[in-house]
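User: Run a structure prediction on this.
Assistant: Running it now.
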Amino acid sequence: MSRCLLVQILALCCSLPASGQGTANPATSPAGFATAASAASARVLWSQNIGRLDSGESHAVFTALAVENPAAAATPTQFRGLRVDLNWAGGSDSLYVDESLLPPEKEIFDKLSADLDRPNALHGGSRAAITGSGEFRSGSYPLVADYQVYGPEGSGLRILSSGHSAVLFTGSKPTDLSNLLARAITALANAH
């Protein structure tokens, strides 16, 4: 029986205002991008394919985009960010990361990648040698992922759907996700 060493990064799916800050304005909050981009009336103003992860029946397509939702306000507001379309044997889902959250998410995945590259980082027996970064405790990151090592059979990056189904990408690492986030940041910065 193989032991499972799970190196987890935890992040919640919604960005909530801190206590005492009142209600966030959906037109300017990171959650506004998810609301606008997933609305039936959303209009895509610009999009660029960033890349993909594939492993067996698991697929993730990363697309940078700018959208507006004309039905949401008298004056349509433009929202920009990254859509991650997940498909796996058990279903499909789309995750939305507002442009403002891409740099901090990338930084966290960079830190995890650096931790994983340390000598003996994954030699913790049945206990996790790496627990992730404290930045995820705030619950303001929509992209949830972890890196799983499961003995000699292999290892892989798992991305969690909004319903918390784990979509495994055997052979992929947090560095792969960080590189895709970097491409999205660059594409959005260069978009007109």
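The beta strands are 5-8, 43-55, 58-68, 78-88, 91-98, 144-149, 155-160, 166-170.
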